[in-house]
Structures are given as structure tokens and as C-alpha cells.
């Protein structure tokens, strides 16, 4: 390689490095702005909701405040989805390790996503994508734990989680399945909604799937066990 080719190549690498750095910096600043904005403002739409519209399933949602949600549904989703939600920093490493061991031995895959991780995916990302998406999920999970706090994360989860074909959030689910506001849900009704959250298109409430019929009584028992926990009580205020 002659000296001119060497410096041309070195200049090209330098320009590529500067371009990559600017892309990374602008991406970080834009994401930070949106994360901070969403601390107070609900997302206008998410990628999952866009896909729901494009697929013909429609978009039914009703964003509501934390106090309008009612304690039964808050307790039910923590009992069913993430019992350590008040205590962890966004990641439940023990559950992740257990899921990894199970997945190595079994063809049926187990997840270990916390409520915080699900919010990061539902608000900022998309539903599939493997390790590529997971990398972004780690970043957004860390940031919302740092910027939003637990109550805002739980509120966002209860507003954007898919609860049926074309239905998002617990208020839309409560009106669709039980013809009432989420704050008026009984413990049994709240447990039913929570039991469908892992896959609401497969685990249906109406008609009631075998998974929901089996799981909601278990969630009810967990609600009874967890409701007196001081950290849980703090989130129910």
C-alpha cells in the first residue's frame, strides 16, 4: 500500500467514525427527549398499535390517570406478571437465570420480562426482533427506571399493554369485557384481565380460554398473599 492510499483509507475510516458518533449521539439525545417527555405525556401511538391498525384489528384505547385505574387491577398485574416489581431495578436476574436454564432443556420457551421491560418494549420498540431488540430494551428499561419511577411505569403498562385484538390498556379491556371502568373491576375481573396479558390474542377472556380459566384463580391467591406487603401498598396509594 502506497502512502496516498494509506492516508485516503485512514481519512475514510475517520469520516465513518465521525458519522457513527453523530448518529449515536443524535439517537441518544432524541430518545432521551422522548423518555423525559413520556414521563408526563402519554405516547401518541406505539409501533404495536400501528401494526394493529394496519392489520385490520383496529385501535381501541383509553388512557387514564393512575388514580383512575383502581387498586384491584394494579395488584392483579403485579401478582401475575412481576411480583418483585417494587423491589428490582428493572431486571429480575434470578428469573432470567431460571428462564435461561429452562429454555436450554426444553423446546417450550419461558420469558422473564419484568413490567419495566415490557413497558420499554411496548412504548419504544416492537414485539419481535430477538437479541437486537433486546439490546435496545435493556437501554430503555434502565432509562425509564431512572427517569420515570415505579408508579409512572406501572401506569404506562396499564395504559398500553395489549389486552385483546385491537384493545390496549386496562380501561379499554374493562369496558370491552365487563362494561365498566377499570376502577370498578372486581378482584376476579382484574385477575382475568391480568391472566391474558402474556398473549391476549391466544389467552382470551371471551370466550374464556383454558389458560385464563386456569391462571386467574392462581392470580387471585397471589393477590391475597401480596396485598399486605408494604412496598406493594405504597404503589397502591
Major sheet details: 3 strands, mixed
Helices, by number, come to 11
Gap from first CA to last CA: 70 Å
Ranges where pLDDT stays below 50 over 5 or more residues in a row are none
Description:
By secondary structure, this protein is mostly helical. The protein has a single domain, classed as Biosynthetic peptidoglycan transglycosylase-like (Penicillin binding protein transpeptidase fold). Helices cover 63% and strands 3% of the residues. It contains eleven helices and three strands. A three-stranded mixed sheet has the order 1-3-2, with helices on one face. Strand 2 and strand 3 form a beta hairpin. Helix 3 crosses helix 10 and helix 5 crosses helix 7. It is elongated, with a radius of gyration of 21 Å. The chain starts with a helix and ends with a helix. The model has no long low-confidence stretch (mean pLDDT 89).
Distinctive features:
237 residues; mainly alpha; Penicillin binding protein transpeptidase fold; 3 strands; 63% helix
Amino acid at each position: 500500500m502506497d502512502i496516498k492510499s494509506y492516508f485516503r483509507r485512514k481519512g475514510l475510516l475517520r469520516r465513518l467514525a465521525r458519522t457513527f458518533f453523530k448518529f449515536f449521539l443524535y439517537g441518544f439525545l432524541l430518545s432521551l427527549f422522548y423518555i423525559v417527555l413520556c414521563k408526563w405525556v402519554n405516547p401518541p401511538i406505539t409501533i404495536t398499535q400501528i401494526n394493529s391498525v394496519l392489520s385490520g384489528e383496529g385501535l381501541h384505547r383509553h388512557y387514564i390517570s393512575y388514580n383512575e385505574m383502581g387498586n384491584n387491577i394494579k395488584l392483579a398485574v403485579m401478582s401475575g406478571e412481576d411480583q418483585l416489581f417494587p423491589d428490582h431495578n428493572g431486571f429480575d436476574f434470578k428469573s432470567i437465570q431460571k428462564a435461561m436454564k429452562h429454555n436450554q432443556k426444553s423446546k417450550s420457551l419461558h420469558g422473564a420480562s419484568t413490567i419495566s421491560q415490557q413497558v420499554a418494549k411496548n412504548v419504544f420498540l416492537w414485539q419481535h426482533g430477538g437479541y437486537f431488540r433486546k439490546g435496545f430494551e435493556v437501554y430503555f428499561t434502565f432509562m425509564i427506571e431512572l427517569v420515570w419511577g415505579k408508579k409512572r411505569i406501572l401506569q404506562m403498562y396499564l395504559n398500553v399493554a395489549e389486552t385483546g385484538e385491537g384493545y390496549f390498556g386496562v380501561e379499554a379491556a374493562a369496558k370491552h369485557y365487563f362494561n365498566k371502568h377499570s376502577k370498578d373491576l372486581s378482584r376476579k375481573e382484574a385477575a382475568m384481565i391480568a391472566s391474558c396479558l402474556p398473549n391476549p390474542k391466544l389467552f382470551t377472556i371471551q370466550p374464556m380460554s383454558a389458560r385464563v380459566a386456569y391462571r386467574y384463580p392462581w392470580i387471585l391467591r397471589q393477590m391475597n398473599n401480596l396485598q399486605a406487603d408494604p412496598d406493594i401498598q405504597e404503589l397502591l396509594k
